[in-house]
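Q&A FORM
Asked by: J.P.
Topic: structure of Membrane protein implicated in regulation of membrane protease activity

PROVIDED:
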Amino acid sequence: MTFLSNLGPWAWFVFGALLLVAEIAAPGAFLLWLGLAALATGALGLVADLSWQVQVVAFAALAVVAVLVGRKVSPSPGKASDRPFLNRRAQGFVGRVFTLDEPIVDGTGRVRIDDTVWRVTGPDTAAGTDVKVVAADGPTLTVKRA
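REPLIED BY: S.T.
REPLY: Here is the structure written out as tokens.
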């Protein structure tokens, strides 16, 4: 404990740096705000000669403020994306109409969408027929005649 008290306000800089490194090692954007509060407490300790008790209270107050500010500036997980099908490309095809590239025989066929050939399932249909995608299950699209 003597070592930390000898460091004075620099102990807060060390603590803040450790919290920021921990945030990098285990990201979750929570330790970031505590690390910034510790750095701010260290800066406050350099400017004003504060007792350790006041520094702890200042850190607690700055941590609360930093976490609240962090919650305001961080994107919320429930917010709708401007690209909702980014990682679910097949789901974006539901409801669209495409032309069969290969006929559907025994329930399976193929359709070309942009530069990709997709496997489709549905009623037997001749090549060149327009089909509407009604469902997507992984890389397989379920279609019906348009």
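FOLLOW-UP: Residues 52-73 form the longest helix (22 residues).
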